[in-house]
Design goal:
heterodimer; A: mainly alpha; 3 helices; about 0% strand; B: six-stranded mixed β-sheet; five-stranded antiparallel β-sheet; 6 helices; about 30% strand; globular
Chain lengths: ~100, ~260
């Protein structure tokens, strides 16, 4: 009975976490877009989206362990790769920009 | 969030995420309030001077807010090249972002004909400017600054620097020209960096350097007293008359509203 209730708590909390991840990603995007958009806003939005989602899913992956929550870990790993790819692109783009300016 | 019941113990991660949500909401509100989007408009700014009263501008910008950093440089390409004509704005106008409206005009320049230096910070009528922008956008007398796919509608600020330190500021649109400021700056002895060009120069050297590119023929003409004592500040610009045909054509062909 005790174990069962712990499991239920975990289930409820993980459900709430998923909702909060969606809410926070939405709020992060809202924060990035409330002022006027410049031309590269779409690009910035992708960075915000990937960054915030990876960060928040990281919390999920490191909090909930067990068979039922493994998808969170996989998804986190996948997003981490995507985000790092983005970061690499970003660094390359700024590097190029810098090179052009010189 | 129906599943949050009384029995539920919210774990640490969710507490952190809830705090994060609240922080993001607060940050967004602060960002909106700081940005003041409702006080922002598209506009372009430039300076004109009479052809026969060339000036060398050292500094020209609008202050747009409380902070020292809130300013907009004013285009003075024509004046710099001594090609400016009274009442004519710079031909290539662009407006990239919506900006706060100007509150003050900062000018610092030297005049060729009287060899004097002028410097002042002038207060602009903020309410009047805001009302002109609002009514121009409502009455379709705003200018469309073309930029990509976006239609950016706004107005032109044109600062006129006439002889004897007379300053005028117009706000212009389509079939719209309003004088929003008229004032006079008294000449003064230049101090500090006012004569700075690569290094601090003596007054006479600075003036010589600044008007180096003014053609000799023009200098001779001006030195002989050509067009002297004309009161440019009161001379009309014929802006609307000059552009009437163009606008009528554009309206007819639906290039503009």
């Amino acid at each position: 009975m005790e174990e069962n209730s712990v499991e239920i708590q975990k289930k409820r909390n993980s459900g709430l976490t998923v909702v909060l991840i969606v809410v926070n990603v939405f709020l992060a995007l809202l924060y990035a877009n409330v002022t006027d958009n410049s031309e590269d806003q779409t690009y910035i939005n992708y960075v915000w989206l990937a960054g915030s989602l990876t960060f928040l899913l990281g919390g999920f992956a490191f909090t909930y362990h067990g068979k039922d929550y493994r998808w969170g870990k996989w998804l986190f790993a996948l997003l981490l790769i995507v985000s790092l790819g983005f970061l690499a692109l970003l660094i390359m783009a700024t590097g190029l920009e810098h090179a052009f300016h010189n | 969030m129906l599943f949050i019941t009384k029995q539920m113990k919210i774990n640490r991660l969710n507490k952190i995420y809830i705090v994060l949500s609240i922080t993001l909401v607060v940050a967004t509100i602060i960002k909106i309030l700081n940005y003041k989007g409702w006080e922002r408009f598209y506009y372009f700014t430039s300076i004109c001077a009479p052809q026969n009263y060339p000036i060398a501008i050292h500094d020209a910008y609008f202050l747009t807010g409380e902070g020292e950093d809130d300013f907009v440089w004013i285009n003075f390409e024509d004046v710099k090249n001594f090609t400016s004509k009274w009442g004519e704005e710079y031909y290539s106008q662009e407006a990239r972002d919506r900006l706060r409206l100007p509150t003050k005009l900062v000018l610092q320049y030297a005049s060729y004909r009287d060899q004097k230096f002028y410097r002042d910070t002038l207060d602009l009528p903020q309410k009047k400017i805001l009302n002109i922008f609002k009514s121009a956008l409502k009455n379709k007398t705003a200018i469309a600054f073309s930029s990509g796919e976006m239609d950016k509608k706004g107005l032109n600020f044109l600062v006129g620097i006439a002889n004897d330190g007379n300053i005028i500021v117009w706000l212009r649109g389509v079939f719209l020209e309003k004088v929003i400021f008229k004032g006079k700056i008294k000449p003064h002895e230049p101090q500090g960096d006012e004569t700075y060009f690569e290094k601090r120069l003596p007054k006479a050297v600075y003036l010589k350097k600044m008007f180096e590119d003014l053609p000799d023929s023009v200098k001779t003409k001006l030195n002989s007293g050509f067009d002297a004592k004309v009161n440019y500040i009161d001379s009309p610009t014929y802006y609307i008359e000059k552009n009437r045909k163009l606008w009528e054509y554009q309206k007819k062909n639906k290039y503009i509203d």
